[in-house]
Design brief:
Elements (H helix, E strand, L loop, with lengths): L4 H25 L4 E2 L9 E11 L11 E12 L6 E3 L11 E4 L4 H35 L3
Antiparallel strand pairs: 1-5, 2-3, 4-5
Helix pairs in contact: 1-2
């Protein structure tokens, strides 16, 4: 039913932004982590989203049906940015050359991503609330 599809759309958006916020939190938690090798170093994670078209009725292609778009979380990938290497021969994780490998997380980028995800999540919550309020007011019209 097309009337309730707005709730599905808002919920899929909230789910996508929640995944995005979780990856940002994971990245920020590991921003200063050190490793003994480049392979062991933490790599920043980024979610990959896609739009999913949902056809709600058989007659969509004849112009009679409804369609809605939802956000789908396809996967979470790792950043391929270079791993920073620092010469710290006294560090417990230093290799034979005295190098320590650190996470490739850019904290400024992550903070901007967190603010963007938070605002997008908020927008979806407001859409959900406004739709709920309109539906309740529509139902109350029949009571008068």
């Amino acid at each position: 039913m097309a009337l309730f599809s707005v709730f599905d759309i808002a919920a899929s958006g909230m789910n996508a932004q929640s995944v995005r916020l979780n990856t940002v939190a994971s990245n920020l938690a590991n921003a200063d982590s050190a490793a003994a090798t480049e392979a062991e170093a933490y790599r920043a994670k980024k979610p990959i989203f896609s739009t999913l078209l949902m056809q709600e009725q058989q007659g969509y292609f004849e112009g009679r049906g409804q369609a809605s778009f939802k956000v789908n979380v396809d996967s979470v990938t790792e950043s391929m940015a270079a791993i920073p290497v620092r010469y710290e021969p006294n560090h417990p994780l230093a290799n034979a050359d005295g190098n320590v490998f650190y996470s490739n997380v850019d904290t400024v980028e992550e903070m901007a991503d967190m603010m963007s995800a938070t605002r997008a999540y908020q927008s979806n919550v407001e859409l959900f609330s406004a739709s709920k309020s309109l539906m309740i007011k529509t139902l109350q019209l029949g009571q008068s």
